[in-house]
Amino acid sequence: MEHFHIDGDSFAVKRAELFESLRKPTSYCENQLIYQQGDAADHVCYLKSGKVKIFIASQSGFDKTLVTLTKGSLFGKASFFSGSPRTSSAVALRPSEIIAVDRPTMARLFQLQPEFAIELLEYLSKTIRLLSSQIDWLAFEQADKRLARFLVENYNPSVRTIGCTHEDISERVGTTRVTVSKALSRFRKNGWLDTKYKEINIIDINAITEFAYE
Fold first, then answer.
1. What angle do CA 11, 15, 21 make, to 5 degrees?
2. Does residue 94 belong to any structural domain of this protein?
3. Do 153 and 205 reside in the same domain of the chain?
4. Measured between alpha carbons, how far apart are the two ends of the chain, in Å?
5. pLDDT at residue 33 above 90?
6. Do 27 and 106 sit in the same domain of this protein?
7. Are residues 156 and 66 in the same domain?
8. Tell me, what CATH number does 150's domain have?
9. Reduced to 3 states, what is the DSSP secondary structure of residue 63?
10. According to the model, what pLDDT value does residue 164 have?
């Protein structure tokens, strides 16, 4: 699954005149920083022309590019609307013109152009749904590996059978019984094990071990 960073997304404005009529844009040179991770997000940015890179920086100094933006993009939205510090940085990849829109101006835009507000809300809602599905996927993947490690740690090669219920396992690995059942079903389809009432018969412990600690 492709991972998504909420401050690295791109929203393309359909009606450029909404923003281009607001004020004169600020010019940025190539490689000039527009805003930095941790800055106060007191405005959202509209890219009138040029090209911008959104990226995050780790403590080790490694930069990860989230997205590259072109003309007509609205960016820096998540932190702006949440009132939290910037979670990513933005830099001009070539000479660019950017219009900064503060809260009073954005509120005025919403009043004058309610269809734009609805369009933006729909986009943000889709973003939230995407993030939610990714969180669910990550939680399941982590539970999957915890279950695999539980099986490895409780495996006895002379018996090859682990006696416990799905509910017992869920308590041991810190997840729900439904998640355990789904994970065991996946393992069974892979040919790693077979399940019976209160029993798990291990077929391929090597495959389970490799998955658990990969």
1. 110
2. yes
3. yes
4. 17
5. yes
6. yes
7. no
8. 1.10.10.10
9. strand
10. 85
How large is the greatest C-alpha to C-alpha distance in the chain, in angstroms? 77
Residue 92 has pLDDT above 90, yes or no: yes
Percent of the chain with pLDDT over 70: 87
What is the CA 144 to chain-centroid distance, rounded? 20
Task: Give me 7's structure tokens.
Answer: 């401050």
The structure tokens 């009132």 sit at: 83
| Domain ranges, residue 155 | 142-212
pLDDT of 2 strictly over 50 = no
DSSP one-letter code for 8:
G
User: How many domains does the chain divide into?
Assistant: 2
Which pair of tokens denotes residue 65? 């590019």
Strands 26-28 and 193-196 come out as unpaired
Q: Is residue 129 part of a domain?
A: no
* In the chain, beta strands by DSSP E: 11-12, 26-28, 33-35, 43-57, 63-70, 73-75, 89-102, 161-162, 193-196, 199-202
Burial class (CB in 10 A: 0-12, 13-18, 19+), 197: exposed
Last residue of a domain, one of 92, 112, 132: 112
Which one, of 64, 28, 61, 66, lies nearest residue 46 by Cα?
Answer: 28
